[in-house]
Input
Amino acid sequence: MPKAAEPPGRGSDQGPGPCKRAKAASGGPNCPLNFASPRLLFGSLIAPVEPETFFREFWEKQPLVLRRDDPAVAAYCQALFRLSDLKSLCGRGLLYGRDVNVCRCVKGKKKVLNKAGRVHFLQLRKDLDQRRATIQFHQPQRFKDELWRIQEKLECYFGSLVGSNVYITPAGSQGLPPHYDDVEVFILQLEGQKHWRLYHPTVPLAREYSVEAEERIGRPAYEFTLKPGDVLYFPRGTVHQADVPPGLAHSTHVTISTYQNSSWGDCLLDTVSGLVFDAVKEDVALRAGIPRQLLLVEGTAAARRRLGRLLRTLADRLEGTGALLAGGMKKDFVTHRLPPYHVGDGAELSTPGGRVPRLDSTVRLQFKDYSVLTVGPDQNQSDETQETMVYIYHSLKNRRELHMMGNEETESHGLRFPLSHMDALKQIWGHSTICVKDLKLTTDEEKENLVLSLWTECLIQVV
Output
C-alpha cells in the first residue's frame, strides 16, 4: 500500500505523501472521479486506497488523510464551490439559519453572528473580512450540480443519506470549537489551506453532536494541514477542530457526511416493532395480559425473565424468517434522499418510455439503486384487521431543493401491492430480465397489472 494510504501524522504537521490521481472515466477529461457506478465513484474518491482496505482498516476506526498533489484535482475541487459562488446564490432568497450560518469560535465557544431574514453577499464579505467569521453554507448540493452528482451516487453506495456543508474561514480564525459529530465525515479541501487537529473520541461512534472542552480532550492525536484537492476522513465521535493560519488566503472546504442514525441499534429499533406486530397475531403467549399492577410498581424479576424469554422467542423468529427488515428506515431513506442526477428536465424519471409491457413482454428493472421493497401494515386501513402489504418506494420524483432540510415537507413516492405479489416482485428485483408470463402470480391479469403499474412509475422497461 502506498504511503499515501497511511493515517495522518500524529501530533505534528506530518501526513502521508502525495497520492496518485484516480483515472478519469465517465466524469470527463478533467474529472478525477469515476461516475460509472457508485462503487467506482467512491473508489476514485479515496484512491489509491481500495474500498475493501478502507472499510477494514479505517471505517469507524481511525482517520485517513489522502494528499492530492495534482493541479487537475485541485482545480476540480475548487470548482465544486468557491467564495464567489455565494454572490449568485444570495440572489436566490437564502435565509440566515436555514441556508447560512455566520459564526466564530470565541474562547472555546461557538458565537453565532447571524442577521435576521435574507442573506446579502456584501454583508457576508464584511463578516468574513472584518469580523473574521466563518460562513457555513448548508446543503450546497441543492444548488451545485456537481455536488448533487457526487452525493446521490454516494447515497447509492452507502444506502444512507449523504449531506454536506461548506465552510469558508478567513486567515487567523476558527469557526467552531472542538466538537464531535454523529456522522461519518469526508472533508474535501477546495480553496486555501486549513490546519486540523483531531483527538481520540470521548464517545466512540457517537449518536449526537457535542462540544468538548479543551481541558478534557488533551493533546491532538493527529495534526496536519489540508491543501486544495486533499481528502480527510474521520469516524463519528472523533473530536476535531480546524483553523486557518494567519497570513494565508481564506479556506473553503466541503464536509460530506453520512451514516447518521444508521447503526445496528437503529435497525433493531425499527425491526422489532414490525416483528412484534406480526408475531402477536400468531403467538398466544404474546397476547397474554401482563400481571396486574405491573405498571404501578417497579418491574419484578419474574416480569424481566418473562420479557427475556419473549425476546429470545422473537430472536428465533427473526432468524427463521425471510421477511424484509427495517421498513421504516428504508422508507425514510428513500423519501428523503436525492433524486437521480440528470441533465435537462428529467422527463425520463417521471414519464414512462418505450413499449407498454404485455403478457408476452420481457422486462427489466431500471433505477434499482433508487428504489426499495418493504412490507408493512396497510396504511389505508384504520381498523384492527390491517393487512400486511408490500410497498415499493423510489426517489425518482424527489425534490432536490428539499434534500436534508429537515423541517421541509417531503412526500414519499411509490406503489403498494398485496403480500401475494412479493414473490413476483422479488423475481423482477432479482433478475436482469424476466418474462412477464413467468411471474409467480395466479392469473395473467395480475401479471399484466403488476408490470403496467411498475412501468407507469418508470421502474421497468420492455427489452
